[in-house]
Amino acid sequence: MIKVYTSSVIDAPADTVWAQVRDFNGLPRWTPFVAESRIEEGQPADRVGCVRNFRLRDGGLIRERLLTLSDYDYQCTYSILESPMGVENYVATLKLTPVTDGGRTFAEWWAEFDCAPEREAALAEQIGQGVFQAAFDSLKKVVAR
Amino acid sequence: MPTIRVRRSAVIDAPIERVWAVLRDFNSHGAWHPAVGPSAIERGEPSDQVGCVRDFTLKDGNHIREQLLTLSDRDHVSTYCILDATLPMRSYVATVQLKRVTDGDRTFWHWESTFHVPRGREREFEQLVGASVYEAGFTGLAAYLRRDGRPSPPRSAVDAQAVVATSFGGPEVLQPRRLDAPAPRSGEVRLQQTAVGVNYIDVYLRRGDYRMIEPPAPLGMEAAGVVLESNAAGFRPGDRVAYACLPPGAYATVRTLPAAQIVPLPDHVSEETAAALMLKGMTAEYLLHRTHRVKPGDTVLVHAAAGGVGLLLCQWARALGARVIGTVSSEAKAELARANGCEHPIVTRSYVFAEKVKQLTGGRGADVIYDGLGRDAAHENRAALARRGHWVSYGHATGALEPLSLVEKSGTFSQPVLFDYTEDLLHQMAGHVFAALRDGILRVDVRHRYPLGAAADAHRDLEARRTTGQIVLLP
Fold this sequence. Notes:
By secondary structure, chain A is an alpha+beta fold. Chain A has helices at residues 14-21, 27-30, 120-144; strands spanning 2-10, 34-39, 51-56, 61-70, 75-82, 88-99, 104-114. Chain A has a seven-stranded antiparallel beta sheet with strand order 1-7-6-5-4-3-2. By secondary structure, chain B is of the alpha+beta class.
């Protein structure tokens, strides 16, 4: 089991940032790498247990299940059901915390998963930087609008 | 009491390891928090040991003891609680948590607490803790980390003007001399002194009655001033401070001292007042609160009740609810003592007072006697002491006491010395004195001011009994 952790500071209030990321079906709106997304079986996007089915811009298909969602803690957890990344037991958490100094947001995103040992370093880099950090950078621009 | 929760957070532009190295040290706050004065860990325990207690003074004069409850180097979290505070905060538990901001290698710092405060004061304390403690701490630590590691400017000795006793003798032996105030070494500060207290003990030292100096040597036990340079945690240039300590040497314009001897001055205490009050005020503090704990209804006998310490003992003992009997040498001094809380001043020049004390107490005597007189009053003190009474000898103006036994009264005899109390209780004692000043319990009357170079005149007037109230020298 390896753990990847990425955190950033977003120059907008936590409520504003949370309004973007709490939508489990909203990845195409605030990430640079998701082309389209839908929630399976017509469920609401904030119902724990719902599954998002999305296509990456590079063509890959990913299915993820929402495990927890807390508007109080600004936190959600999800697991990967299917993906082309070659990971097992993948559970990720996205959490926001208000920074009272300056009305900003501390954003954390971490994931734990299993994979082939020789792929650990590359996957950690790909997920930590290529996914989480890239999404944060894109989110900063979205909330700044 | 309502519970309030205070949460503040900030991003510090330094790696988490660097921030945590400072914060995990439970005694580091004196070095980086702008509101925190000197701080010490009790019983010499390591400052990262769970259970250790830090004892510190805020720059506003409040005094706090806090205990470290948890410390996790893995999670970068520590929790602590307040044990005692001069602020009305109860059940205060706080958490400090750091998290790594991987984007830019910075640190997210979250600080929160819950506690009870008196009803109606919620907003005041939310602001006090949130802004003056947490937010000020964020700014202070960031500034500290920017300063840290920068080479300090070269330091050297500076010229100080001092007044020294050139030999034992009369006031004429006091002469101005140029002395070095060395650069502060680790744990020291250099002060620009602005007011120096004059005490009768300075006269004893000058005359050679107490062999505490070897001339030529500077005199003076207490002073106040402003920090010029600091090589010690908890003090910064510009801080207003005061001290009362050995060795003598306060009669000087600039002085370098161990920071452990120095206390910060709250805004409401002027440097003149502090210079006049440190020695006598802390003496009154330990006599009434530590050597003996005066309770409401106690009968307290104060000798030289119109003297420097005597007046403070009368004021404070009265405020504690004691019945204060005093001895003085004249009607005028009796008036002064009475105006300062002494209910029954006894005028006597020959130290005869026991019969009067017995009369005033229905034959019982005094529960505690504060005796600065010594030999010539010993017989009367023994007679004036109540059964199970406490005779506290803190001076001997008329000569040293013979060894004595109080077994016939189950009495207690103490010979306390100020510096045995200030050794480890300085901040509590000074904080207590400053709070008593603020609350109007202690009143200080600085009536006589002399330039530092005229110290000999101050001694002449003091010995000739031409002064009443406090005397300060102004460097």
